[in-house]
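>> Question from a student workshop board

For tomorrow's exercise we were told to take the sequence and the ligand below, predict the bound structure, and bring the output to class. My setup keeps failing. Could a helper post the expected result so I can at least see what it should look like? The ligand is zinc ion.
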Amino acid sequence: MSTKRNLVNELLKRNCLITPDCYEILEDVDDDTIDLDRLANALKNELVVTAEKLQEALQSFEEFLSEGDLIDSDSPIDESLEQSEMDITLPSKKVEEPLDSISDSSKDDEKILATQIRDISKDVPSQFDPIGRNIDTQFKILHESSGQTTIDGTLKDFSKYFISRFKQLRAILKKRGDIGGSFRIGDLKKAKIDEHERIGILGMVTTKVSLKNGGMLFEVEDPTGSITITISNKMQELLVKAGALLQDQVAGFFGKIYGDRMVLEDFVFPDLPLSSRSKTVKDPVSVCMTSDLHIGSKEFLEDSFDNLIDFLNGRVDDPYQQTLASQVKYLIVGGDVVDGIGIYPKQEDDLIITDIYGQYDKAAELLAKIPDWIHIIIISGNHDACRLALPQPAIGKEYAPKLWAMKNVSMLSNPSTVNIHGKVFLLYHGNSFEDVSSLTPGLSMSDANGPMIYTLRYRHLAPTFGRRSSVVPSLKDELVIEHVPDVFHTGHIHINAHTRYRGVDCINSGTFQSQTDYMQSKNINPTPGRVPIINLQSGKLHELVFYDPKEQKQ
Ligand code: FE
Ligand code: ZN
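>> Workshop helper replied:
Here is what the output should look like for this input. Compare the format with yours to find the bug.
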């Protein structure tokens, strides 16, 4: 067996999932001198080990060894890694929110009515009359990914992937009034542009560097060429705004050309159009949204989930809650249906169902208790049984045959765009939200509103390639947000959030898993059992609380 295979297998045995680009690095590692247990320990908090993380770990590892220190589980490696990742593109000082739109839109949160569902009854009250029973399901898939890769991952193929991303985002940018008549980068030289003339170009950021003098430098490319763009250290406001300009992001740039450089005066993201076009929905139907059930985990809150099932069946005494329940026609599960197997080191200690088939059988058993007039839409997440890299195909039929067999269930890819009863929903688990929130100044991992708004502004679900969340390159970049949705439903963060951005309801539907030891160690405080429910006719959003804090961890 070759050295390469050996190390890969050894790491896998230690529950380290690595991306294919790590293979090359491992090939160069001298396997006689490396202590794999220690390396695995240094990487234990990575869901998936990227080449960058592996390199950083190996480097710190070497430094530690050269200092003659031992690496133990309390070593500060993880923190130092996180810090170094932050430093790559973030300014070191805390910057203000670059946009007022965020704080403005967050105020909508206050309008959500939170309803504690407590008075669950054993029987369905006789007056319960679900409208879903008399109305047909109106559900259409607008875009779904088969997950098939159309290219092999050669350098040429990667460039095809990025050209596809560029072309799709350019088309969106061109629809904006302000950057329509822009120059192609390759035409700039012969265009004889006057030094005082402000021009526009569209391009993808390939390099982003913070300069010692406080300014910034970008290398920006389109298929015809590349150009250096600088921001002077005097342009404080623009520098703050440019903090959110990420690598591999496509944007429109305005500035003046001096020699072979552009001095930036402003830039625009593809963003959402300002005008919101909302169609009215004929029926007063509601969509219930949840995600991150983590069935199979010891922390899955089955009693709380049973309360949701009772509610959907109308087994509530309060007439107001009964009315809410009677309107539910759809339920979306935004990924991480089960906790999975081998997702992180020592996961088996946190599982109550230790095989993946059993986890999905349990999921099917629970979802079968939901009345069949409710159509259930399930997308995959990073804990589910399918390829981890985005776009993730639907959860495999071989793992979840019972879910696939249910007539009222649609199993879809992550992401998917669907039309539910006249409204467009963009469904995305949120795999890239750690990356987006760590790279974008002002965002935090505990607030999904930031990454939801920014991915809409970027018009891309995973703007920076090759980070923690891996992306499979294909001939068409399926992570570009081509359709403007009415509702953007996400999960993954395990903390409920809602905001409205340019007419789009951005909803993170939390979790049914209580705090795990891992989350406790990272100071992540989930909000389990809170289920947003949106009425498509009135646009009103409620949050139903099914979690009873008395329900203890097992
Ligand atoms: Fe999750
Ligand atoms: Zn997740």
